[in-house]
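Progress narrative, work stream C.
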Amino acid sequence: MHVRRRQRKRKQSSKHHDEPKFFDPERASYLQELYDEFKTTKCQDARRQTLANLANFAYNPENYGHLISSMSIHCSFLQSINSADDFIAIISIKGLCNMAMHPMVAELIGKNESLMKILSCIECRKHLIDFIINGLLLLIIVIKEMNQPIDEQIRIRLKTMMTTINNEIDDVRVRNYCHLLLMDNVDDNKLC
């Protein structure tokens, strides 16, 4: 008798795990407050902290609906990767990495102008290994995992940039990411 009850409880509880959780309106309100503070604050430390919090929330797919649809935070992250403030640039590229598997975000990042911006930012921040690693990871996710096609101009620039990075930066993680980007692309619309 107790076994049947436990089995019934397991079945009932497993149903709840398959269903998406209800998005808490308090969380949505908090995310909106963070976003508003990021957009309006003049204090650089507060701006950094709110952006870091938003990037952390971007890691959880349950937050995508509000972060992407309501706030378009991915656009703010993309806009901020070329910030003069290295911390904001790094947090922004990490925020994009956290959301890159979402089709709407991958589509935005996969556009030629977005890819060119990412490549330019990586080239300008060769002194920041963390930025380079996350930038390469973002390219891997968008180009390889989300299958975003890229044009010839970007393909050439990407190959040139990766060759330069491999020659100038002695970091095994950077080399591994460059290798991942360059390998196994047979389709002409992809990288190689």
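Work stream C, second folded protein:
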Amino acid sequence: MGFLRRVAGVSLRDRGQKMETPQEVVLRTLEDLGAEDFEKFKWYLQQKGALEEFPAIPKSKLEKVNRMKTVDQMFLTYSMNTIKVTGIVLVKINQNELVKNLSNTISEPAGGSSEAAASGQSLQKSSTEWL
């Protein structure tokens, strides 16, 4: 089972009624940022070397784009690493509460499968690397 499917399989809305896709998780996270923090978020995505081993996104691809287009561009650029990149940038812009929420969102809910639990543990471990 692919990484994105595992993440989607363990991501739940707070209401517990609907599973979220990884794209929805990232979009919801970006929607929690104010305008200035969203611009800082995009700025970091454009900086070479700011995101560990991950490439920068060209400025032209993020200029004057909304949160949905930003999510699309992030998934085109980072694929299965988009949630990790999101966490890295959130730490850089001092949005540690959102990092915590992101980590909780992708953690295994109670009663899940052992495969999902293993993926949740690895994602949880990755989230501590963001800090």
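The two ends are 28 Å apart (CA to CA). No further action is required on this item.
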